[in-house]
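Exercise 7. Given the encoded structure of a 369-residue chain, write a plausible sequence.
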């Protein structure tokens, strides 16, 4: 149905502000048109499922942890004296374009993570020596979630997120003796955490064999091993204080994901913590806004989350995820209700921050009950 044109509801006499005013008759016509349109929409099958991107707008802001700091970044940065910080800054300024490109014209020198990353990227030996950071970038053919200058000190954002989540969940990295990065790829997060907390016995596993081989050869700060698509892992019962998994349960077919929760339960000592991220409702909004999923599919996922609590599609196809082929590995969205129902009372959920990972994935912290 055609919408009444605006000219029909305006009179020609200008208002005090010089703009046309609506007449009463025009307003009544418009109200009648709106009412008819509403009735027609209700009568149509599928009505109420709007198709525009804004129809699915999530208005809740992303959650935050009870504790928000930059613990891993600070642990590394604070090993530098003032003179050493100045020396790294000078080195960055002496590299054509580096300062302008990464720090802009403002006071970005205060950004500690940026100084560590760009300093490592341009090859400051002093920085590597003082912090224990390793500047080794996997080649293009080896899987890595990020590359380049902003990953030259590892994944500081994710490292800080893991430690913040652990702290918010009542844990203390100072008491962690052994930890596992489950699904570590080529070890970008372990590069930061291994350097920041060298007293921990760090482990990393992933089914992507070339990524694990590269990490084994280049990152002596952790023990890496290739894992299978399904449990178990070659680690002893109750041998770990901390397990973290970034963007892993966002890929498991839900029943496979439950099997892996069982394995994590076996590996954690009493009082240990599991920090993991997964897609939830905030991710539906995130991908829709970014144009990465259609409005129709976003509605499908949203409905599945409300009705069943989980949505899964084996989206990697025949080639798999960088050669790792497994029908139980695709894209998953999970609601907090589903997770709580499945996990409790075997687990206690000690922290939940919806959308906290990049304003996209939800972060959970669990403890074996
Ligand atoms: C989205 S990436 C995240 C990598 C890493 N956590 C990070 O943040 O850099 C997903 C990783 O999970 C790995 N993966 C695939 N199947 C897996 C499985 N069954 N168990 C654990 N990890 C798996 C992939 O090889 C890939 O390295």
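Solution.
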């Amino acid at each position: 149905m055609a919408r009444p044109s605006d000219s029909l509801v305006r009179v020609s006499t200008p208002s005090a502000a010089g703009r046309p005013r609506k007449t009463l008759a025009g307003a009544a016509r418009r109200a009648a048109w709106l009412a008819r349109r509403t009735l027609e929409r209700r009568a149509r099958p599928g009505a109420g499922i709007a198709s525009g991107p804004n129809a699915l707008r999530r208005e809740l802001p992303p959650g935050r942890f009870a504790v928000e700091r930059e613990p891993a970044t600070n642990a590394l940065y604070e090993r530098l004296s003032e003179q050493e910080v100045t020396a790294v800054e000078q080195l960055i300024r002496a590299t054509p374009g580096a300062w302008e490109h990464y720090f802009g014209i403002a006071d970005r020198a205060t950004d500690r993570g940026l100084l560590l990353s760009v300093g490592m990227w341009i090859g400051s030996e002093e920085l590597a020596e003082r912090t224990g950071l390793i500047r080794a970038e996997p080649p293009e053919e080896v899987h890595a979630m990020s590359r380049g200058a902003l990953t030259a000190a590892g994944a500081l954002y994710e490292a800080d997120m893991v430690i913040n989540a652990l702290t918010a969940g009542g844990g203390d990295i100072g008491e962690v003796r052994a930890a596992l990065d489950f699904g570590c790829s080529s070890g970008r997060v372990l590069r930061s955490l291994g350097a920041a907390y060298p007293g921990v016995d760090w482990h990393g596993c992933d089914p992507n064999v070339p990524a694990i081989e590269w990490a084994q050869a280049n990152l002596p700060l952790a023990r890496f091993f290739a894992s299978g698509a399904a449990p178990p892992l070659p680690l002893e019962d109750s041998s770990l204080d901390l397990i973290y998994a970034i963007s892993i349960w966002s890929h498991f077919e839900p029943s496979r994901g439950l099997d892996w929760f069982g394995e994590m339960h076996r590996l954690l000592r009493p009082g240990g913590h599991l920090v993991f991220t997964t897609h939830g409702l905030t991710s539906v909004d995130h991908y829709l806004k970014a144009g990465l999923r259609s409005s129709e599919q976003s509605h499908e996922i949203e409905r599945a989350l409300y009705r069943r609590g989980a949505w899964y599609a084996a989206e990697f196809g025949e080639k798999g995820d960088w050669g790792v082929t497994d029908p139980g590995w695709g894209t998953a969205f999970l609601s907090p209700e589903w997770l709580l129902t499945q996990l409790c009372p075997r687990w206690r959920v000690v922290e939940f921050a919806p959308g906290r990972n990049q304003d996209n994935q939800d972060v959970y912290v669990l403890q074996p009950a």
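Remark. The chain has a mean pLDDT of 86. Students should compare their own answers with the one above.
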